[in-house]
Structure formats: C-alpha cells, structure tokens
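Let's sit down with a protein and look at its sequence and fold side by side. Which protein we use is up to you, so please pick one and set it down. Label the sequence line and the structure token line clearly, so we can match residues to local backbone shapes. Go ahead whenever you are ready, and we will take it from there:

***
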Amino acid sequence: MPSIKAPKLKLRIGTRGSPLALVQARQVAAELERLGEGSVECEIVTFTTGGDKLTTERLINAGGKGLFTREIDRAVDEGRCDLAVHSLKDVPGAIPDGQELLAFPKREDPRDGFITTSGLKSPKDLPKGATVGTASLRRESQTLALRPDLKIVTFRGNVQTRLKKLEDGLADGTYLAMSGLERLGMAHIAKPIPVEDMIPAAGQGIITVAARPADMDAGLVDLVRALDHAETRLAATAERAFLVELDGSCRTAMGGHARLEDDVWKFDGEVLKPDGSARWAEKGIAQSDASAEELAALGQNAGKHIRAAAGGELPSFEDG
C-alpha cells in the first residue's frame, strides 16, 4: 500500500513590501523551510504600512515609531499572519500584548553607510554648505554635530527611491544602513561610518521574528526559536533596554549600540540636541558571559546616566 504524505504546514509571514523587507522575509522563510526538513512551507504576505506611505514627511508628523509595524502586528493579532518579520530598529519598545519577539537571527553590519555620487568617505569630506538627505532625526543631528555648516533635506522612501533622489541631485550625500545594503548585495556603493562618529540606532542591523506563541503549536514555536543567534539577542536586549529607559521615540535623536568586542561586552549610547550643538554620551561594559538581565541593566544604566546628564529632560524635535 503506498504511503500517504503528510501535508506541509503552511506558515504565513507578514512583511513590508519593500525590496529590502522582502529579502529579509525570504531569508527567514528559507531558513524555516530548511529547519523544518520538508514539513513546512512559507508564504510571504506583504503590507503597505503607514510608514511606507510617507514620501516627504518625517515620521514624527505621522505618528512616530511603530508606523512600519502596526499593520503587520494587527494581522498577526487577528490570525491573518502567523509570523511577522521586522527590522528591529522599527519596533517600538512596547510590543502588542500576547506577542513576543521569538527570534533574532545573526546581526549584519550595524553601521551607517555614507553615499555620494563622487565616492566621498564621510560627511566630513563634503564641501562647505553641502546638502545631506535623510529622514532620520538621529542621522540629522549626528551630521550637524560633525559638520554644523551642512544643510539637511528630508529623504524618505526605500533604498532605490533614495538612491534615485541622490542621482537627481536633490542632495550631495545620503545615508543607508550597511546591513540593508549587504542584504541587497549593494554594500559596495557606501562607505561605512565608524561607530565613534555615528552611533547606530538601537537594533540597527538586526531583524526579528514576532508571533503570538500562545496561539501556536509548541513544536512550531521551537522551530522559530531555532533561528535565534544568542549574541545578537543579547545585543538587542541591551539596546532595547536603553531605548525603553529613555522612552525612545522618533522625536529624540538617539543612538545605542552593544557589541561583544575583545571578549568584553561594550555599550555606547548618546542623545543629541536636534541641531547637533550638544550631545550626551555614555559608555558601559559587561563581562563576556553576562546574562540577559545584566545586558539589559547595561543598556538601562546608560540611559539613566544620559538622562541625568541632560538635566532629566531629553531634547526633542518639534512637529513640522
């Protein structure tokens, strides 16, 4: 009697529809199918989020952090998707009740990449009064801290859209995350900026897989957790604790970065005035075998020290 093949379990993965988001979701899907050894089939479900609909405005004018995740989170809550794949830097400190960030695959290069049509290495190399395009308040403030004479114009859109704006002469330089460029096979177009010059956004270079574990089979939860990279999870824990401590939103220019370096955990965090005229920075270290709780404390303490140094009230951008 012929054997009857068990049907594959279909997983619906929610993601933004941008080229980079699709690459990230497909990487997760391929790895889940590999780990599932033929028992799992993944379907990518794309969403146009509130953040994707912005073409010229800053995020603060349209609701701030969470604009790139809300529609996908809602689909997971309503059972229209089983999993969500997010860029961690887009995920607010508070996630929806019942959801959990189940996995953090290995981090890519967390640095910012600087791009010009002439191949300059840094905003420091731009001519006096040149224009830099960015929609990131962090990058704007950090740029002005390096070069107060530069002018900032708002660049929104996916990687291809921003590169087109640069080619059209709307700015002399712009930034893109090195991690995204690596995933798209485009890292060669940018010059990485040292963390010492521009501390990345908390979570930059990390993708995460979110779900409602209580609504999932235990074996499936274990399968998703198998995507986890322990060192990346610990870095994410420190950076998100820093973000939460400072109530990080799209109104405050801030960067936070944790990494295991020379067998020690190192953390760098900062908050800047919008015009870059002042910055409050804090460093911290922890042992290489530090626990998740100790890494969370590392980020949290950095945030507390920065808030105290800034006088208890963080500088923020106004709407407009």
